[in-house]
Design brief:
four-stranded antiparallel beta sheet; 34% helix; 11 helices; TIM Barrel; alpha/beta; binds phosphoenolpyruvate; binds manganese (II) ion; 2 domains; eight-stranded parallel β-barrel; 342 residues
Length: 342
């Protein structure tokens, strides 16, 4: 349930409500709005008498949260979430573009692409060092060596880095290098991993599972939020359908649905959504037009020789053109591209 405090409720009134929630064996989560504080009382489903909170000083009203996801819901936090990401800012009205290769392949490759995407207007560098591959015989990523190369690219460009973590036991290692931890589609329901990144403080990019519903994506986010980490960005990356002309089917619907149901930022990955570089720019434009807060795009200096996902990777020049077009669409909606790192 949500305990909605009166505008101007005092800190001691808020504290008393929190203590009473905890005394009932529930967890209290605060959402500090511009005008009022909302306190989420979340637990294991046990029945708690609401009336005891209604009569407390500073309490305006008590309402149940209608959704199964609580902390991720707009009811809990009506305003869009915002947080800093090592030099850039994730906030409403500002489009963030994450770009880079599917996999970190070599020092020369990652440094070249990092400079090129920054020049083209990107805000953060992506690149997988631990790769979830369908075949165990495919390239599995450079591991820690790849993380070190990403860190060097960040040193040279200032771009924050986003990279995938595949298992709970990798979280500490990857967090030492990454500014944002990506949880891939195949791991969206790896609950041990969700809990582990939830206990840390690194922002998380949570990708929708290949066959996951929007509600399942939000419940996965809830695992992270419920452990204390509030900095979660959701990513639509295409779902499995009967269609074979594209690698996946980009669920554009998911963007306005998610924006209505959650305060968490929502970005789109048109690279995995389409699987073909020729369609990436069109679907990137569509995502921004539908209300996405950002994009994650695979860009490679030499896609023909990429070790993974070359066919869906843009060359830097095409990426630069995409950024311009996306800025145009954002402008129509009264949004801008977020300021880049200097
Ligand atoms: C990736 O970003 O390269 C990736 C493996 O994505 P997904 O988990 O969406 O397939
Ligand atoms: Mn990829």
């Amino acid at each position: 349930m949500l305990i909605i405090m009166r505008a101007g409720a005092s800190q001691s009134e808020i504290k008393s409500v929190v203590s009473r929630i905890e005394a009932q064996g529930l967890n209290a989560h605060l959402s500090q709005g511009k005008e009022r504080t909302i306190i989420g009382a979340v637990g294991d489903g046990r029945i708690v008498n609401r009336d005891q909170f209604v009569v407390m000083d500073g309490v305006d009203r008590v309402v149940p949260i209608s959704r199964p996801f609580k902390l991720a819901s707009r009811e809990f936090s009506p305003q869009d979430s915002a947080f800093p990401l090592n030099g850039i800012s994730v906030e409403p009205g500002q489009i963030v573009i994450i770009a880079g290769p599917c996999s970190v392949e070599s020092r020369a490759q990652i440094l070249e692409i990092a400079h090129a995407i920054k020049e083209a207007g990107a805000h953060a560098l992506r690149g997988g060092a631990f790769k979830p591959r369908t075949s165990p015989y495919s390239f599995q990523g450079m591991g820690e060596e790849g993380l070190k190369l990403l860190a060097e690219a960040r040193e040279q460009t200032g771009l924050p880095i986003v990279t995938e973590v595949m298992a709970p036991e990798q979280v500490l290692l990857v967090s030492r290098y990454a500014d944002m931890l990506q949880i891939g589609a195949r791991n969206m329901q790896n609950y041990a991993l969700l809990k582990s990144v939830g206990l840390g403080d690194r922002p998380v990019l949570l990708k929708r599972g290949l066959s996951a519903t929007i509600e399942e994506l939000l419940m996965a986010a809830e695992y992270i939020l419920s452990k204390g980490n509030r900095r979660v960005v959701l990513c639509e990356r295409g779902i499995r359908t009967f269609e074979t002309a594209t690698r996946n089917t980009t669920d554009i619907n998911a963007i306005p649905v998610l924006k209505a149901q959650t305060h968490l930022p929502v970005i789109l990955d048109p690279s995995h959504g389409t699987g073909h570089w020729e369609y990436v720019t069109a679907i990137a434009r569509a995502g921004i037009a539908a209300g996405a807060d950002g994009l994650i795009i695979e860009v490679h200096p030499d896609p023909d020789n990429a070790v993974s996902d070359g066919g869906q990777s843009l060359k830097p020049e095409r990426f630069a053109e995409m950024v311009k077009q996306v800025a145009g669409i954002a402008g129509i909606l009264g949004k801008t591209l977020a300021p880049q790192v200097s």
